Amino acid sequence: MYQDEIVEEIHRIREEYSRSFNHDLKAIFADLQKQQAESGREVVNLSRKPGLTTRWSGRAREIGEDAKDISRRST
Asked: What's the count of helices (H) and strands (E) in the chain, helices before strands?
């Protein structure tokens, strides 16, 4: 099986980082939030908001409704 050196390095770094927090996800998350806050970079939220008006129909739609419409059309 082929092993990519870059992927292996990423896995090693990720494991070391996780080990440094005793594999505690809450502690890892808190550290990542701290790093994000200290970075000074603007954080943009690209998630959709429920009930936004769609561009084509002009009516409000809930998240996931588009996928339901598509599946109904294809059957």
From this structure: 3, 0
Asked whether 52 and 60 are in contact (CB, 8 A), the reply is yes
| Pairwise CA distance, residues 7 & 13, whole Å | 10
Radius of gyration over every alpha carbon of the chain, rounded to an integer in angstroms = 21
- Phi/psi of residue 24, nearest 5 degrees: -90, 110
Query: 16-65 pLDDT, tens per residue?
Result: 999 999 999 999 999 999 999 999 999 888 887 766 555 665 555 555 55
CA distance 51 to 32: 31
Is the pTM higher than 0.90? Answer: no
Q: What Cα–Cα distance (Å) separates residue 34 from each residue in 11, 31, 60, 64?
A: 22, 5, 36, 32
